[in-house]
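$ ./design --mode recover --in tokens.txt
reading tokens...
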């Protein structure tokens, strides 16, 4: 096991391409995209995301802790311009080196 950072971004699907391009720059190679999500923001009042719930996406990515600063620097301007939220947390990755066929 080793430490990684978990990045969760909720944004309008219109900005998905820009966000994924921003993640590739600091070499965040793996991500998961969940489309058509709905929810309610933690902040009071309406948000841009509330207007088009079915167009929202959730992007989950993991990266080495030293790559998180460049990720934030690239994602923040996109979210500031177009709306959305980003959460970063600590996680542990378990890498399997044994193939099932070898058992």
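writing sequence...
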């Amino acid at each position: 096991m080793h430490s990684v950072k978990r990045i969760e971004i909720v944004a309008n699907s219109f900005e998905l391409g820009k966000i994924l391009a921003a993640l590739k720059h600091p070499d965040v190679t793996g991500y998961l995209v969940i489309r058509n999500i709905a929810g309610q923001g933690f902040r009071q009042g309406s948000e841009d995301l509330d207007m088009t719930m079915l167009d929202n996406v959730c992007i989950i990515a993991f990266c080495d802790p030293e790559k998180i600063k460049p990720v934030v620097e690239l994602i923040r301007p996109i979210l500031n311009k177009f709306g959305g939220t980003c959460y970063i947390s600590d996680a542990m990755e378990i890498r399997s080196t044994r193939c099932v066929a070898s058992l």
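exit 0
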